[in-house]
Amino acid sequence: MNALQMARTAYSNTAAPIRTPRGTEYEAFARITHRLRQTAQDKKRSYSAYVKALYDNRRLWTLLASNVAESDNQLPKELRAQIFYLAQFTAKHTSDILARKADEMPLIDINTAIMRGLQREGQ
Fold first, then answer.
1. Less CB within 10 Å around the terminal CB: N or C of the chain?
2. What is the model's pTM?
């Protein structure tokens, strides 16, 4: 590798955008919500992909719940409680979906509202 190629390689990663924690959270919600929407449209033909999207959504919310339960979490207590409640709701509602007692729309609506909030606060 010559010096020019080495220089290009060394500095090529600096062109990547710097992602904030809020941006990372937004991206996670956007990806999972998109997959949930997409797989819900074709759940009869690809039920396993739908279940995987539900699982990933529940996993995201479980991660958020464990994060807000930490004593050193800097979010206001009321917001932490609301996030924890939404995580509990998501777990219960996902179980209801899998038992064919509910559909995914409330989960998509909650995720979309969270994404709007993350976008608004990031501006």
1. C
2. 0.81
